[in-house]
Queue: 4 jobs
Job 1
Amino acid sequence: MLQRHKIRVSENINVIKRAHSQLKKTAEISLNLSDLTRDNLVNHLEAFYDSLIREEIIVSVKTDAKIFPEILSLCLSKAPPFFNNNKNEFKDSVIWYSYIYYIKNIKIEDCCLLTNNHKDFCDKDGGLHNNLKVDIALKVYNSTKSLLTENQDRLDIQPTKQIIRVLESAQRNPQFTWELLNENLKQIKDEIRYYLDGLEASSFVKDDLSKITLVGGLYFVGDVELKSVQDIEYEAIDNLLYITGTLICNVVIELMKHQPEDDDEPYCHYRDLNIDVEFELSLDVDENKSFEYVELFKPNVLF
């Protein structure tokens, strides 16, 4: 998570500095941006987490060396979900088995896993992967909304006045979600590409011959265009507005065929496609109408 935060912070800083450079030229405005560095912002986040740990709001789970023999065995046998299909998600396996070891060692009951990393922790239906099921009560939630909605009575969470105003604004404007997505277009397109990366090349073709031909093939995601959002629902909890629905986008895909007989050129161009893909969409929007989280899952190619 921290590494991804560093990348996003760097991108946002570059946007601010480019805008500042233009302002200096056109409006003779100069601001002191010396403190606006990636390290300063990352240190601020780390300090925030440290304060949560000191106040015992969260617990930092340490990795125990006892988990590594099992992880090494899984890695060598290429056991899914962390090590199959030429993947080597060693970090995700360490995270998972560290949590499980901690839960069992401390004897915590009524646990849950909140993750939008469906590719590495869950099966296609969003449930915990069969190889990860353990002898403890652990329920998977694929969004913050589902976690809070299902446990509202236990947590006694009420929406803030400001988030109620955001909800009312959304209910008055049929284009509210569509406008939000387009205001954050780069982030949405990056998320679409990220989730498409988990598919097989054969997923993008309909006929059986092409599916067979593309076994072991590669693909590259090109231009992404948002087409529509459907079945939008809103729910305000605490200081967030949770938005769920369906997002349909158009994607350019370059398919590459595997050539095992050619060591110099193991892949060759097979076909370019322009296809529509449907995602289940979940957005967490704060009181300033900014994204807290974006979750896309269950990509479905529309033939």
Job 2
Amino acid sequence: MPDYAFFDTTAFTGARDLETTSWRKITAAIKEGVLQAATSQVTVLESGRQASETIEAKAKQVSEARTVLATFGIDFLPPEIPTPHQVQRLLPDWLDANGVAILPMPDAPHAEVVARDVNVRAPFARSGKGYRDTLIWLTLLAWIRDLPELVANVFFVTANSQDFCSPKGDLKRELLAELPPGVHVEILQRPQDLASRVELGTAPSVATIVTEHALKFIETALLHEILDGDLTSWDTAVEEVTVSEVSADDGDAQLVDTFVGDTQLWTVDIPAELGVNGYVYKADLPGLDDTLTVSDADWNSHYAEVAGRISCTVKVLVRLEADLETSESEIQELVV
């Protein structure tokens, strides 16, 4: 009996091409038949909108950079921007290529959805927020009811804990009550969590193992570290830029050397996005860089706290022992 997994929209954030290390393992499991996976039409539509917004924002940055560089006599051809239809087809094409089923909209009467909203029944909130989450939940329910009767556990990959989960991290009580008898839905927040639970029939490559060691290392090694000012490109001066979040799920591992006893030395280049916090003089807030947000406008009498994100490549040196489980890692460099 294979495992079963259903993906919320948050599962595709930062990995819409499904080429990260975790997604490669997930799609390998699907192709081996040890995992069956699905998502909703709502997620496809949401992801298409998010992709369009990201492309539009990045294209604007490229255009602004081109204008600035032109004053130095530097010019380049702007990238070709896909049409909205092409963007909307990206995720469905990737899902189809990797064996993830796209489920149709749930066959739920509109009056039923309105009743959930009026009665503040999860995933709806008292404010009325939760329409799309409700459609995603009803899609998952319909899928579960069509699964073989022997299926007792389904993974629901979602980082949307506020709308779907109780404070303990499992499903909210009212959602649990809607499940068919004998079926348990286990919440996993990230594709990485699902990948760690999937058992492949073939062993992962050493490069994949090395990358997993490096990823696990940087998740904690970079947290609360103060970054060099050269890594930022903001127009606003920000002091004490500190890492508050590390988002990475991929890496390019290269073998450097092999020593006596089969100890190996590897380098891994990991594309990452760092959530950061820092401090800005209150007098500079009116001209705050538009990629920064104010998280505490009155941090003290002189400074406000701001938050932002930095895209970079983390270069990690990994020493891997022969058992493939013991390793030592260090960060060699952060490159923007």
Job 3
Amino acid sequence: MNAISELQQSYFLLKIGIISHQTCIDWAMERLLSNQEGDDFDIVFLAITMNHDEVLPLVEKIIDRYIGLATIDDELVAGKYIALLHQAYQAGKETVASLDEKFTKLYYSLGYPNWLVMLSRNCEYATDIPDFLKPFEDEFEYVANLWVSAESRNEFESRYSRDLSNQHDIKYC
């Protein structure tokens, strides 16, 4: 299944409350319209479900069948999502305020990963303190660029430098 990574990302974002159930239903509908569902009746059921309580179990079943639910690395999925958010921010589709809510949910749901500390903090501060906009944007670009090229969390972590992240702060002279 070509689009399973999209569903994997939607699953994670649904679990932490960033997206609605409808995103997963739309994913299944797109698979049906593209004739990519094969003989997978769970995708058909997901596409036609009207009960949002059924969405998460169906998505889990589909992911487990194709890649294994236990193999999902939430930090990798979150990192790839941050890379997409960076593109959306650069295109003017996201704002500091809209990102703040998303980063806060990511930060808490991932258990406060070290690599997300400065990004989350700088975004929060930039919503109220204009001087934090540049440090936020610098950190956002740094973290997003690392995630774009990373194929795993270990690969990201081997390149990430907390010392460099700490430099993305207001410079007091």
Job 4
Amino acid sequence: MKLEKWMKIVIMGVGAGILIFLPLWGEIYHKTPYYIGIILLIPLAIGRIMWNEKFEERFYTSWGKAREQGFKINLVRESAKGSVLMAVLVIINQYFGRGFTPIEIVSQVSKGILTWLILMLLGFGLIYGIAAWYEKEKRYCRIYFEMKKQQEDICKSR
């Protein structure tokens, strides 16, 4: 196994250890779902590290098709993903950190503030969408040139 994979596994292990022992340093509400979530995340993270090449191939194929649709459609798609991701992270933080459910959060915020929060979330989602486009393009090009280099190396060795 490559050294890079071992480093990722060690970093993931340290992160998992911090998440497991986090309730000892601070108050965590709803500990049972918290630990179930952490336990489910660990094998997912290990699988992502171990089969990175498969994920890269799948990304290369899917992004190759998606980039043909153009910048605007992908911007909307990635912005929506970013907005949902940020909302879910805030909800998870409030649920485990303060013990609030999403319904409690919405009911305690006035409609004016809720409107501003949604607009701000959409604005950050737009920024996320722009950044995601450029990052995915960069990743796609990196994979493309790695594949091209491998093909050239194979041709040279013959």
